[in-house]
Structure formats: structure tokens, C-alpha cells
Amino acid sequence: MVTQARASHILVKSEQEASSMMKRIADGEDFAAVAKRFSKCPSGKNGGDLGWFGKGMMVPEFEKIAFEEEVGKVVGPVKTQFGFHVIKVTGKK
Q1: What pTM was estimated for this model as a whole?
Q2: pLDDT category, 70, cuts 50, 70, 90?
């Protein structure tokens, strides 16, 4: 059973911006480079890396993606109270 997940994300203000980030990544841009350039979250400085976290530590919409999607998958736009996210699941344990 997965008890922890690790994810990186790009946080932007609009669904349109998040869709644009998804396109950049799909077109081959590096996720971390896009996060450093565009993310509104302080984690952007670290390529969007949020580190390891357990259940109940993230908002429900974010947590659902982190724990249910496969490692390496990039998902978005995901709307939360903070804005729109592009999420990359980077680990599970």
C-alpha cells in the first residue's frame, strides 16, 4: 500500500495558462525548467519539487492525482483553491 507520494507541480492563475504549460511539456520542454520559469509557487525555484508527503498533507484535488496516477505521468490542469496546477508524479513508497 502506498503511504507516501512525491510530486512536482507548476502553479498558475488560469486554466488557460495551465493548458499552455501542458503543451510546452508535451512538446518536449523539461518539466523542471518550465516550473522554474512560470510557477507562482515557491517550489518553482526547485523545479516544482514538493518532496515526499503523506495522505492528508495536500489539498484533496492534488492528493488524488499524486496517489492515484502512475509515476512519471503529467496531469493538468487541476483546479484547487490555490489556482491551476500541472502535476508530475515523481515517486511513491
Answers
A1: 0.95
A2: very high
Report in angstroms the alpha-carbon separations of 16 from 42, 68, 70, 92: 21, 24, 25, 29
Can you read off the three cell numbers belonging to residue 39?
510557477
**Closest Cα to residue 48, out of 76, 81, 16?**
76
Q: Using 50, 70 and 90 to split pLDDT, how confident is the model at 2?
A: confident
CA distance 38 to 3: 30
For residues 65 and 81, what is the distance between their CA atoms, to the nearest angstrom? 15
* Closest to 46 in 3D by CA, of 75, 77, 88: 88
Question: What's phi and psi for 2, nearest 5 deg?
Answer: -75, 125
3-class state of residue 20 by DSSP: helix
Of 19, 16, 13, 6, residue with least CA distance to 86: 19
